[in-house]
Every structure is written in C-alpha cells, then in structure tokens.
Design goal:
By secondary structure, this protein is of the alpha/beta class. Helix content is 40%, strand content 15%. It has a single domain, classed as TIM Barrel (Alpha-Beta Barrel), CATH 3.20.20. The protein is built from 15 helices and 15 strands. The strands form four sheets. The protein has an eight-stranded parallel barrel with strand order 2-3-4-5-6-8-11-12, surrounded by five helices. Strands 7-9-10 form a three-stranded mixed sheet, with helices on one face. Helix 3 packs parallel to helix 5, helix 7 runs parallel beside helix 9 and helix 13 packs parallel to helix 14. The longest helix is centred in the middle third of the chain and has 25 residues. The chain is globular and about 55 Å long. It binds beta-D-fucopyranose. The site of beta-D-fucopyranose (FCB) has 12 residues, from loops.
Length: 459
C-alpha cells in the first residue's frame, strides 16, 4: 500500500465529551444533569457506575493537554457541560465553571492546540428535564440562551462552534428507547424532542452568527449508510425508512430547511407533527459553515417477516417492522461491525445528496478490550488497523471529490461510555481508573505519527 498524504491544512484531532471525562460532578457549583440522575438509577449502566469521577479531567486537565500535545493533536473537540455553566439551565454563567473552561482553553492555546467546542453533548440540566425536557418547546429557547451566553464569554478563543452532538441519540435513545438519559420510552415525545433539539440548534446558530459572523458554526450528526439486505421491495422500503429516521430526519431540515415528506408519513401513527410551527423549519435550516459527521457503522436491514424475527431497534420510530441483518464482518468490543467502506459511502452520500458545507469527521474510533502488557505498554494492533483502514477510506473520499477537512478520533482517553460504563475502552490513551494513571497506547503513538506528518504510511 502507498503512503497517503492528506491535503495541506487537514485537521487531525481527538474528541471527548464533558460527562464522559470531567468527573467533579458535585464541585465548582456544577448542577445536576440528566446523566447524573439516570446513572444513579439501578440497572441503567452495565457496570453500575456513574460519571461522578470519570477521568477526573476537571482536576487533571493540564496533564491531559500535555498528552494531547504529545499525540500531535492539532484540534481538540470537547464539550461544555451545560450544568457546569448554568447549574439550573437558565440565568447567568457560573463563575467557577467559566473559570475551569478558561483555564482549559488557555492551556490548549498555549500548547498550540485549536479548541473546537460542542455546546451540547447530552448532559441536559436536570431542572430542564423536570420542566419537560427536549419534548418541551421551551427547552429549545433555553438552549439558545445558554449558547448565546457561553459564546459571548468564549468566542474570543474558539473558532469552531458545534451546537449539538448526535441529536438522533438525544431524541431516540433518550426518549424512545430509554437506553440513555433521561430514560423515557415515549416515541411521540422523542419526535418532539428531535424537533426541539434542531430548533435549539437553529436559534443558537442564528444568535451566535449575529454576534460573530467571522467564526464557524455547525452541528454533528451520527450518520449511517443504510442498505437493503435484498432487492425485494419490502427490504428496499425497510432501508428507506431507517435512512429516513436516522439520516434524513436531521439532514433535510438542517441542510434544506424542510422535513422529508416520506418520513413525516412513516411516523404519522406516532405523532401528528403539531409541534412544528410556522417558520421553524426555516430556523432549523440556518446556513452552516461545517457539517460534523460521526461514523461508526453501516445498517443492513430487511423487513420483519414474523413475530419470531428479532425486534426492531427501539430508536427506529416509523421503522418498527425492520430488522438489522448481521453481515459477518469482524466486530469491535461494542459488537459494531468494522466497515471502513461505510465511511466512504456515507461521506459520498452526504456530499452528493445535499448542498453540503465542508465536512469534518467529528468522531470515529473503536473499543477493544485493551490491557496493559507485562512490559507496561498497551498493545492495541486492532485499533491501529481500524484507524488505518478508516483513514484510508477518508482519503479515498477526498480523492472522489468530498470536501473533507479534518478527522477527530473518538477518543482521547478511555472514559465513561454511557450505558456501558467503564467497560468499553475507546481511547488512544489507556486510563487505569483505580489510580487515574494515563498510558499512551500503541495506537496513540501511531496516531501521533499520522497527525504530525499528515500522512498514513504504508503497512
Ligand atoms: C457516540 C457518542 C460518543 C461516544 C461514541 C462511542 O455516539 O457521541 O460520546 O460514546 O459514540
């Protein structure tokens, strides 16, 4: 295989999220988030853990920035914890929270690392959930107010502003399937949640852009290529429905300012869409500078034939007569099939189907059952192989004309993997949770060579 050189200026980075790494849940005036409440409820998290301590990044951020510098990270995508900045989801910013992010930002800039912020990576202040959560329209306005206040405080140092991380997960894992906070199982509420998340996004982009038109604004979506398992009409329709609820429900209003009519019909038995008011779709379609794509897997699906078939994904509202078909590809420790071509396919799909702004892969990576070897090192050849193949797929997409500008690996260091707790390790850096000791994995050393040379070497 050849050495693949990426375009000059291509951004290499790592991504994290506040609740997964910060810990210090009760410190510095941080309010309670829906993930604190959810994780405290027995049976919600596989290992019974919470993010109360996590990677203790709140106290160890300086060490973590040094690690990033050693990994050759040029851009660091992280999220603000909303309840750390506005404990109850409204009002003035909490000085101790502002102070923490001030110190983190200054440290990053000092080490030549560009900050890239996500305003919402799932940790809604519990007070806002108590008032109705995302299914409640006012939450969109609370989000826009929060975004405006935080942006006014930090826009001097952050060039890239992402509103939401994976609104599909917030809406459908949180409110339909219940695997994520707040753990509700109300498909109609999930549809309203999806709308209000996007409305909040549009309102926030509009307000932030009015204040600083020179910065870049975007959103991060988890997208999937969706294939029918066979050419049979029922399977093709199954694929259309899943593509609708996972991809187009978000891409269409955000990039075209209108919901896709077929998805409206697919979910008609669940909701009458009365939560959409005049002008909302236009607000959601506010122009963007960047689209963030998180890619982990492809969906191959077919129509359910009988009640003996496995059940549909609870998050696939409007596609409950659809089942996912395993393709036999090797899987990661999450059980997710390893499919680098899927990255190529989804990048092509988005850039061909939409009038799309420049794309960044804001997350891609893999969990494996990493352990430190007797030599004290963490040898993770599977992760190197995974990243190598996905980086090559990204390069192929660029050659095919996709305007891809950067790639952020999920994730900097092992952390609280939501409903799986600490059992899934996605990091380039290993964390020993008993001591908080960080050890750069082999994949981290490998990534540093890619990031600093802008080249994927032959293997
Ligand atoms: C994504 C999330 C991220 C992480 C990865 C594995 O859905 O955005 O926080 O959990 O999956």
């Amino acid at each position: 295989m050849n050495a693949l050189v990426f375009p000059e200026g291509f951004a290499w980075g790592t991504a994290t999220a506040s609740y997964q790494i910060e810990g210090a849940a009760g410190e510095g005036g941080r309010g309670v988030s829906i993930w604190d409440t959810f994780a405290d409820r027995p049976g919600t998290i596989a290992d019974g853990s919470t993010g109360a301590v996590a990677d203790d990044h709140y106290h160890r951020y300086a060490e973590d920035v040094e690690l990033m510098a050693a990994l050759g990270v040029g851009t660091y995508r992280f999220s603000f914890a909303w309840p750390r900045l506005q404990s109850g989801g409204a009002g003035g910013l909490n000085p101790a929270g502002v102070d923490f992010y001030d110190r983190l930002l200054d440290r990053l800039l000092d080490r030549g690392i560009k900050p890239w912020v996500t305003l919402y990576h799932w940790d809604l202040p519990q007070a806002l959930e108590d008032a109705g959560g995302w299914p409640h329209r006012d939450t969109a306005h609370r989000f826009a107010d929060y975004a405006t206040a935080v942006h006014a405080r930090f826009a001097d140092r952050i060039p890239d502003w992402t509103t939401l991380n994976e609104p599909w997960c917030s809406a459908f894992r949180g409110y339909a399937g219940g695997q994520h906070a707040p753990g509700r199982r109300e498909p109609a509420a999930a549809m309203a949640a999806a709308h209000h998340l996007m409305l909040g996004h549009g309102l926030a982009v509009r307000a932030m852009r009015a204040a600083r038109p020179d910065l870049r604004y975007g959103v991060t979506l988890n997208l999937y290529p969706v294939d029918a398992a066979t050419p049979a009409a029922a399977d093709v329709d199954a694929a259309r429905r899943v593509d609708g609820i996972c991809n187009r429900l978000f891409l269409d209003p955000i990039l075209r300012g209108a919901y896709p009519p077929d998805v409206r019909d697919d979910v008609a038995a669940v909701t009458d869409w009365s939560f959409v008011r005049d002008g909302d779709e236009q607000t959601i379609g506010a122009p963007l500078d960047v689209l963030g794509v998180n890619y982990y897997a492809r969906h191959v699906v077919r129509a359910r034939q009988s009640d003996d078939d496995p059940p549909a994904d609870t998050g696939w509202v409007g596609a409950q007569r659809v089942v996912k078909v395993p393709t036999g590809r090797p899987t990661t420790h999450m059980g997710w099939e390893i499919d680098p071509d899927g990255l190529f396919d989804i990048l092509r799909y988005v850039s061909e189907r939409y009038d799309c702004p420049p794309i960044y892969i804001t997350e891609n990576g893999a969990a494996f059952d990493d352990r430190a070897g007797p030599d004290g090192h963490v040898h993770d050849p599977e992760r190197i192989d995974y990243l190598d193949r996905h980086f090559r797929a990204a390069h192929r997409a660029i050659e095919a004309g996709v305007d891809l500008r950067g790639y952020f690996v999920w994730t900097l260091m092992d952390n609280f993997e939501w409903a799986f707790g600490y059992r899934k390790r996605f990091g380039l850096v290993h964390v020993d949770y008993a001591t908080q000791r960080r050890t750069v994995k082999d994949s981290g050393h490998w990534f540093a060579r890619v990031a600093t040379s802008n080249t994927v070497e032959p293997r």
